[in-house]
Amino acid sequence: MSDTSTLAITPETEQPVQLKYSRTIADLPGPKPSPFFGNLLQLDRKRIHVTVENWIRQFGPIFRFKILNHNVVVVSDYAVVSSLLRERPAGFRRHQAGVTIMKELKIDGVFGAEGEAWRRQRKLVMRGMNAEVVRNFFPTMVSMTERLMLRWKTALEAGKPVNVHRDLKAMSLDVIVALAMGFDLNAMDTDGNQLQRDIDGLFMRLGQRMNAIFPHWRHVRLPRDRDADASAGRIEFAVTDFIQKTRERIKNNPHLRQKPGNMLEAMIVASEEDGNDFTDQELIGNAITAVLGGEDTTANSIAWLINNLVQNPAAAAKLAAEADAVLGEHRFIQDWEMLSELTYLDASHNESQRLKSVAPVFGLVSNEDCVVADTFFPKNTVVFASAVGASFDENHFPQSSQFLPERWIFDEKPDEGNDPNRKLFPFGGGTRLCPGRFLALTEIRMVIAMLMRNFELEPDPKALPVKEVMNFFMVPSGVPVRLKLRA
């Protein structure tokens, strides 16, 4: 192939530039497509990430496949993925099909916003989820962690089984609803709360629509679609009420303007500052987006870590010893400073994310003609950027199939080429780095430290093997773990 060049417009400067490349998408390797369907019939939409990872092993760091007559380019080289993520939102955007589905369910926040709307809402959300707000929210997280511990202890002392996966999701829902909406849902101890049912139902419907081959709900409204609309309406009504009550609370407690205790308080304070014109609809949309984005990701990151620990008892023992040393006489984290002392816990979480990332692929679309990895991408090229492409590469992670937290612990900070943190993207990258990552990491540390300080993990011999299931995120089919009180 000979070098080729073409003119293109850069989105940042809107000036023409000469693009040089040696190949086009048609030159890329990939799985053989069938007539009409392309590679669609080879994709299990519940496990599409597994197929993509297998193709990465077969075809290398850049290849293409076809859905019907449309090309999709997969990129897995971590340096290229990092570059693509840094080029958002100017160079690349999210695929609008998923954004449209979210908006149909009234999930209209920073996650799906682009351009100037994204810049406005990013500012709002970052005010609501920064480190200071999470630290102010820490006492609430302490109480919720204790509530989870007592629930498990009470069940075990009564000889009752513990549904770990269910309780992790309830805990994460309680945390994110309290932060984003200022409301103690207590999903952990109840199943009958209407808001909880609506949130769970809406998230389930979102996953189903994301995996649907044909958007039937736009043509034929089934009972489940009407139920989803009703749930979305009730959630919006509830959040509107929370906003009104929060404004009253701030009015009666002016100190909250300097020290907001949750995301909703911080966003309301930001919205009322001079120069800001955030609407109530933006407050509502981002509160709902935070809940739906924060519940499943954090709970299932913890679930995957527990699954990895129960399969690796030596690592679990090291983590328990660290929890004992850091927490001392305490049964759960009560001091903020303890969070920074959990070195092995952080390493275990990093290793679990490497093996079982809840967001293994980013779907992107090019805004203009561009060149990626010496390949010409026309405007509107669909790209799957692997967040974990390096994770099973022996050159980057020797013994890549093994759970080895020690690979994340260093006496001295490694140089850029040897730093594993630069090779994976569990929270995205660039300016669209996940705004909730600090909250998620805090919750993961608190729950896992409490778990290992108080309980032993045993595999459930009667449970089915755990499968990876792609809904909106990649989740485990279960957590086949039995808890036992530590002596």
Spell out the blueprint of helices and strands.
Blueprint (H helix, E strand, L loop, with lengths): L3 E6 L6 E6 L1 E2 L23 H12 L2 E6 L2 E6 L2 H9 L5 E3 L1 H9 L10 H15 L1 H27 L6 H18 L12 H17 L12 H30 L10 H9 L8 H31 L2 H15 L15 H13 L5 E6 L3 E3 L2 E3 L4 E5 L50 H18 E5 L8 E3 L3 E3 L4 E5 L2
Helix pairs in contact: 4-9, 5-6, 5-13, 6-10, 7-8, 8-9, 8-10, 10-12, 10-13, 11-12, 11-13
What are the defining features of this structure?
alpha+beta; five-stranded mixed sheet; three-stranded mixed sheet; Cyt_P450_CS; Cytochrome p450; 13% strand; 487 residues
Account of the 3D structure:
With 487 residues, this protein is an alpha+beta fold. The protein has a single domain (4-485), classed as Cytochrome p450. It is 46% helix and 13% strand. It is built from 13 helices and 14 strands. The protein has helices at 48-59, 78-86, 96-104, 115-129, 131-157, 164-181, 194-210, 223-252, 263-271, 280-310, 313-327, 343-355, 437-454, and strands at residues 4-9, 16-21, 23-24, 62-67, 70-75, 92-94, 361-366, 370-372, 375-377, 382-386, 455-459, 468-470, 474-476, 481-485. The strands form 5 sheets. A 5-stranded mixed sheet has the order 4-5-10-7-6, sandwiched between helices. Strand 1 and strand 2 form a beta hairpin. Helix 5 runs parallel beside helix 13 and helix 11 packs antiparallel against helix 12. It is globular and about 65 Å long. Keywords: Heme, Iron, Metal-binding, Monooxygenase, Oxidoreductase. Belongs to the cytochrome P450 family. Heme binds at residue 434. Its cofactor is heme. GO terms for molecular function: heme binding; iron ion binding; monooxygenase activity; oxidoreductase activity, acting on paired donors, with incorporation or reduction of molecular oxygen.
